TrEMBL record:
Residues 44-125 form the AstE/AspA barrel-sandwich hybrid domain. The gene is Aspa_0. SUPFAM superfamilies: Zn-dependent exopeptidases. Transmembrane segments: none annotated. It comes from the Eukaryota. InterPro entries: AspA/AstE_fam, Aste_AspA_hybrid_dom. This is ACY2 Aspartoacylase. GO terms for cellular component: cytosol. GO terms for molecular function: hydrolase activity, acting on carbon-nitrogen (but not peptide) bonds, in linear amides.
Length: 138
């Protein structure tokens, strides 16, 4: 499966569908070239690895007491550093990010995750290396 987003639930967006088509086409092109015997050299890519899911601040009754800070909204995959604004309480108090490393939040303030008690997901940027790849005939 391929999930391309973010986009609101029940909405079909032309730009997102175009990205999905391109991703699927690249995947199919790779499979065809691999099956034809093309050799692929080693490569390194940056990816984002999920660290943890972060909930909204809540009171003792489990009610949300802060929302995503405006400076974090729509900043998926952008670096979040210690001290950066994270949440904004209903009283206007800023709750900063407190962490010992830079993280890359995603799924920020997604409506589909409210019921799952998830304000965003913290990810870390890592590098993956793929070895030389070619079809081996048995």
């Amino acid at each position: 499966g391929v999930e391309v987003g973010p986009q609101p639930q029940g909405v079909a967006r032309a730009d997102v569908l175009d990205k999905m088509r391109k991703i699927v086409k690249h995947g199919l092109d790779f499979v065809q070239l691999f099956n034809e015997g093309k050799e692929f050299p080693p490569c390194t890519i940056e990816v984002f690895k999920i660290m943890e899911k972060v909930d909204y601040p809540r009171n003792k009754n489990g009610e949300i007491i802060a929302i995503i800070h405006p400076k974090l909204q729509d900043q998926d995959w952008q670096p979040l550093k210690n001290g950066d604004p994270l949440f904004l309480t209903l009283d206007g108090e800023v709750i900063p990010y407190q962490g010992n490393c830079t993280v890359y939040p995603t799924f920020i303030n997604e409506a589909a995750y409210y019921e799952k008690k998830q304000a965003f997901v913290k990810t870390e940027k890592i590098k993956l290396t793929a070895k030389h790849l070619r079809l081996s005939v048995l």
